[in-house]
TrEMBL record:
GO BP terms: L-valine catabolic process; thymine catabolic process
Keyword NAD tagged: yes
Keyword Oxidoreductase in annotation: yes
Domain of life from the UniProt record: Bacteria
GO molecular function: methylmalonate-semialdehyde dehydrogenase (acylating, NAD) activity
Entry similarity comment: Belongs to the aldehyde dehydrogenase family.
PANTHER family from the UniProt entry: MALONATE-SEMIALDEHYDE DEHYDROGENASE (PTHR43866), METHYLMALONATE-SEMIALDEHYDE DEHYDROGENASE [ACYLATING], MITOCHONDRIAL (PTHR43866:SF3)
Location of the Aldehyde dehydrogenase domain: 18-482
InterPro entries (UniProt xref): Ald_DH/histidinol_DH, Ald_DH_C, Ald_DH_N, Aldehyde_DH_dom, MeMal-semiAld_DH
EC numbers: 1.2.1.27
Catalytic class of the enzyme: oxidoreductase
Matches recorded under Gene3D superfamilies: Aldehyde Dehydrogenase, Chain A, domain 1, Aldehyde Dehydrogenase, Chain A, domain 2
Protein name per its UniProtKB record: methylmalonate-semialdehyde dehydrogenase (CoA acylating)
Gene source species: Pseudoduganella namucuonensis
């Protein structure tokens, strides 16, 4: 914990004002490539958290009545501002998170797509009507906002995942309290500034920073009606159970161990290149990465070429042109990944490529781990059973597609998966039989576009409804069903029946 006063401070956002926290507890925001301290982030006090929720609760009274077109126009303006500031946002993200500039722009762009979807709220937040369900009786539904919602976001996508959350919640007429990762909150705060510039009123969006105590406060606060979470399985499980016990709606997107299957009929070069990007891009720090690949039959002969391609990837700070892999988020993350690699060797897996202690000119203090490949990986090894969250690829042999599918389905996680093949029959069999939420066919990271919903399954998800897309409209709204009968003056009054017959 830092006590230095030299670095700039990250502010809280409460009721439309960026305010300096009164806390005595601060954390350094560190450039993971250079160890330079970029800023200091506060761990918000209980009073500040309460003030943020109170501002959101108060703002909800008027925001919920804001015409749907007015809400949509704010997000039309917001997407324009994000586009205009893309280079600045990407540079900020790279400095604090370590992604390459290309990866950083991709992070922002995938969030931008959800902002654009939020601008379409007028055609999304519509109810249904059935006319004349009985004599003179109509039944219809309204999709109304639920109140104060909250989001807890991780370090690995500090632009995309906040943009998955607050735009859709706010577009639906709710107000929002966001808790970004304290490891890299700066790009999130810049996006928040642009959201206010786009016209989001005071109190509709609020931001608090901190660790476990802020998470617990969000789970416990009686005025928060829904919580959205993306992060580790351990924390997500805690959030789901704690927030659910207080009657909140909760959606938790958690850990993963995604698998790819490569059949020998696949386009070899495209498959190998896609595996490299999916396993090692963003230094492996994404829940939709492909850290496990099952090579079927003769595809096992491709291992040497895969290793050579991985060896040629460029490791550097994210700002250098042509960089393929940047640093891990922290020194602790680097040590954790290195310990997994050591355990893989100790457990008997074959280390085809060792990425430990790479030579990265100009970045002697950076948190770098290079591409690492193991073959002969089996369940029971820590490198297979646990989410490494680093640039480590585990290769598993299989004799047939059936064997490969059975292997995938035995894993408890179900975020995403992919198959590489030129066989339509094999691809169809795979999509029908595999147990995972997002499925790619010759697509390595099948994160759905916002017209659809993120649909992780198994141990990777708690809660029925996913973030963004059609499902999140249901998550952020309350369905009211109205049954109505109107009488004209010529109607004959009679006994009031408490049950309307539909016969």
């Amino acid at each position: 914990m830092s006590t230095s006063k030299a670095s700039p401070t990250v502010k809280l956002l409460i009721n439309g004002e960026f305010v300096e926290s009164s806390t005595t507890e601060w954390r350094d925001v560190v450039n993971p490539a250079t160890q330079e301290v970029l800023a200091r982030v506060p761990l918000a006090t209980a009073q500040e958290i309460a003030a943020a929720v109170a501002a959101a609760k108060s703002a909800f009274k008027t925001w919920r009545k804001t015409p749907i077109g007015a809400r949509a126009r704010i997000f039309l303006k917001y997407q324009q501002l994000i586009r205009e500031n893309m280079k600045e946002l990407a540079a900020l993200l790279t400095a604090e998170q370590g992604k390459t500039l290309a990866d950083a722009e991709g992070d922002i762009f995938r969030g931008l797509e959800v902002v654009e979807h939020a601008a379409n709220i007028g055609s999304l937040q519509m109810g249904e009507i059935a006319n004349n369900v009985a004599s003179g009786v109509d039944t219809y539904t309204l999709q109304q906002p639920i109140g104060v919602c909250a989001g807890i976001t991780p370090f690995n996508f500090p632009a995309m995942i906040p943009l998955w959350m607050f735009p859709m919640a706010i577009a639906c007429g709710n107000t929002f309290v966001l808790k970004p990762s304290e490891q890299d909150p700066m790009v999130t705060m810049r996006l928040v500034e642009l959201a206010l510039q786009a016209g989001i009123p005071p109190g509709v969006l609020n931001v608090v920073h901190g660790g476990e105590h802020v998470v617990n406060a969000i789970c416990d606060h009686p005025d928060i009606k829904a919580v959205s979470f993306v992060g580790s399985t351990k924390v997500g499980t805690h959030v789901y159970h704690r927030a659910s016990q207080t009657g909140k709606r909760v959606q938790c997107m958690m850990g993963a161990k995604n698998h790819a299957i490569v059949l020998p009929d696949a386009n070899k070069q495209q498959a190998l290149n896609n595996l490299l990007g999916a396993a090692f891009g963003a230094a492996g720090q994404r829940c939709m990465a492909l850290p496990v690949t099952v090579l079927v039959g003769e595809a096992n002969d491709w291992i040497p070429e895969l290793v050579e391609k991985a060896r040629a990837l460029k490791i550097s700070g994210g700002v250098e042109p042509g960089t393929d892999i940047g640093p891990l988020i922290s020194c602790a993350a680097k040590e954790r990944v290195e310990s997994f690699i050591a355990s893989g060797v100790a457990s008997g897996a074959k280390l085809e490529l060792d990425g430990r202690q790479p030579d990265v000119p100009g970045y002697a203090g950076g948190n770098f781990v290079g591409p690492t490949i193991f073959s002969g990986v089996k369940p029971g090894m820590a490198i297979y059973d646990q989410e490494i969250f680093g640039p480590v690829l585990c290769l598993v042999p299989a004799a047939t597609l059936d064997e490969a599918i059975a292997f995938l389905n035995a894993n408890p996680n179900g975020n995403g998966t992919a198959i590489f093949t030129q066989s339509g029959a094999a691809a169809r069999k795979f999509q029908e039989e595999v147990d995972a939420g997002q499925i790619g066919i010759n697509v390595p990271i099948p994160v759905p576009v916002p017209l659809f919903s993120f649909t992780g399954s198994g141990a990777s998800k708690l809660g029925d409804l996913g973030p963004y897309g059609k499902q999140v409209i249901l998550f952020y709204t309350q369905t009211k069903t109205i049954t109505a009968r109107w009488f004209d003056d010529s109607s004959v009054a009679g006994p009031v029946n408490t049950t309307i017959s539909l016969k």
